[in-house]
Every structure is written in structure tokens, then in C-alpha cells.
Design goal:
Layout (H helix, E strand, L loop, with lengths): L23 H9 L8 H7 L6 E10 L2 E11 L4 E5 L6 H9 L3 E9 L2 E2 L5 H8 L1 E4 L11 H7 L7 H14 L1 H4 L11 H13 L5 E5 L7 H17 L3 E5 L3 H7 L2 E6 L2 E7 H6 L1 H7 L3
Parallel strand pairs: 3-8, 3-9, 6-7, 7-8
Antiparallel strand pairs: 1-2, 1-4, 4-5, 9-10
Helix pairs in contact: 5-6, 5-8, 8-9
Length: 288
């Protein structure tokens, strides 16, 4: 985030003196006001260009007996990108977890390319539905080489040679990784580790990428690199991307569609660039 002058008033997720920052409680309270009207499914379909490649209907999900998501709906077209933003605890990562199979589903459905995948295990989501999950951070195997980490991405393939062939294709695409193929993952920079995490998810050639906080812990130059990679995967390879991003400005700049979640419910939905221009979104989540 760029430096702010001393007289600049900072709000939402911005940085500044204590007296200028809205508290977390106030952000949650004011954001909850946005959720009162609800978003009709027809609007979500419109944003997805009436393509229901990824569709969630009436999802109620959470952990143990605790329900986090309440009648949650989502729709994304093939090759589109969606960014989920909102206050801490709004349920953003729970959406990704629910799509991939990490939560308890109390009701509703998750559909990928017309197939109900709600009850599939994570490995079956990857193998049969083409859904890959890229974790927030530190998911590489530090003691393994870059090459071995990529091979691990193909653990569901029938033959080890298939994973090795796919790893070679990735090395051709990303010379930065190829130069470090024999290096232990623990010696990589933060940006290189994130590139490895993304690349490992590509070994199974998924159609849907669930990306949790791609910019977390990274220097600005690496953040730009990661978003350039994701843009290439979407625009160049037609991947459908659903992400959670705390850096709301960066996420909405990248994504075709933006959703604002509050308390496990959908409060706002629009094109990413339109949400960037919305004064309420700016005040609460963009630091201005």
C-alpha cells in the first residue's frame, strides 16, 4: 500500500493513527447495513454472463456444528474471476473451504460444470471436477526440492511419469522455477514459494483455482508478480479463479466480479471495477 501523507484521513483497512481508523467492530457493524436488501440470484447470473460453470445455491456451511454461511449463493462463468472481500470473520475463506470440501454442509449445493459436487471429497473434487485449492501460505514441503514439490502435485495421477512430464511443462513456462529445480523449497524467496504453490496446483491441470490470500506476506514487487501469473492463467489458459484477498483494492482490480461478504451472507455483488468506485466499499475496505 502506498505511503499516506500526515493529513490524509485513513479508514477501513487502511493504515494510520488510531484516531483515524475505523475499529473492526465499526467496520463489521457498518458493513452489516449493506447486507439488508440481499442480492437476487438473477443479478449473480447477470454478472456471470448467464454462465453457471461454478454455481452455489442456498449454501449453509460451517465447522463442527457452527454454521458460518447462511443461504449463500454464488455464480461464476467459465474463464471468469471472482474476488471475495469483507470484514474479518465474514466467511470468505469458508466459501473456498466449502467448494473444496473442508467444511460441514448443512444445506444447499455446489455445482461445477453442471455436476453436483457438494458431497465429494477434496481429492475427488480435484480428480473428477478439476478444482484445485491454493492455500494461504507455507504449504510447500520445505525439505523437498522445487522439482519434488511439483511431483507431489500429481499425487493423484496414475503414473509418476505423468507428474514428471507435467512438471517439465511448468518449468518451461516458468524459467524462474526451472533455475531452482534442485534447490530445497525452504531457500526460496516469498514470491518464489508462492509461484511454486500455484504451479504445484497446476500439475493436475485444474479448471477452477481456489486462491486464498495470494498476496499475504509478500513484498509489493512479488504481489504484482503473483497477480500477473494469475491473470495469465485466466486470460491465457481460461482458468476460472475464485479468490479471497485481504488487499481488497488489488483483488478488485484483478477480478471480473467482486462480492462483499458480511456475517456469512452476501452483502454486495458487482463487477470488480464498479465495486472499486463504490463509496461505501472504498470507505470500509479500501482505506479511503
Amino acid at each position: 500500500m502506498s505511503d499516506q501523507g500526515p493529513s490524509k484521513q485513513i479508514r477501513g483497512y487502511g493504515h494510520g493513527g488510531v484516531e483515524t481508523v475505523i475499529s473492526v467492530e465499526d467496520v463489521n457493524r457498518q458493513a452489516s447495513e449493506l447486507a439488508k436488501e440481499g442480492i437476487p440470484p438473477s443479478r449473480l447470473a447477470e454478472l456471470a454472463k448467464n454462465d453457471d460453470f461454478v454455481k452455489i445455491e442456498g449454501l449453509r456451511a460451517g465447522y463442527g456444528k457452527m454454521q458460518i454461511l447462511h443461504e449463500f449463493n454464488l455464480q461464476v462463468g467459465k474463464g471468469q474471476s471472482l474476488c471475495l472481500i469483507g470484514p474479518n470473520g465474514a466467511g470468505k475463506s469458508t466459501v473456498l473451504h466449502s467448494i473444496f470440501g473442508f467444511t460441514n454442509i448443512f444445506g444447499g449445493a455446489v455445482n461445477i460444470n453442471g455436476k453436483n459436487v457438494t458431497k465429494l471429497s477434496p481429492k475427488d473434487k480435484l480428480r473428477s471436477a478439476g478444482v484445485a485449492y491454493i492455500l494461504q501460505d507455507k504449504s510447500v514441503f520445505p525439505g523437498m526440492t522445487v522439482e519434488e514439490n511439483l511431483w507431489m502435485g500429481g499425487y493423484l495421477m496414475h503414473k509418476p511419469t505423468q507428474a514428471k512430464e507435467k512438471a517439465e511443462q511448468i518449468f518451461e513456462k516458468y524459467p524462474r522455477l526451472a533455475e531452482r529445480r534442485k534447490h530445497a523449497a525452504k531457500v526460496l524467496s516469498g514470491g518464489e514459494r508462492r509461484l511454486l504453490e500455484i504451479s504445484r496446483a497446476l500439475v493436475m491441470d485444474p479448471e477452477v483455482l481456489l486462491v486464498d490470500e495470494p498476496s499475504i506476506g509478500l513484498e509489493p514487487r512479488f504481489i504484482d508478480m503473483v497477480f500477473e501469473i494469475l491473470e495469465d492463467l485466466q486470460r491465457g489458459e481460461g482458468k476460472t479463479i475464485i479468490m479471497v484477498e485481504q488487499n481488497a483494492k488489488k483483488g478488485l482490480e484483478f477480478a471480473d466480479i467482486g462480492y462483499v461478504l458480511v456475517s456469512g451472507e452476501l452483502a454486495m455483488a458487482d463487477m470488480g471495477d464498479r465495486l472499486l468506485e463504490d463509496p461505501e466499499v472504498g470507505r470500509l475496505f479500501l482505506g479511503g
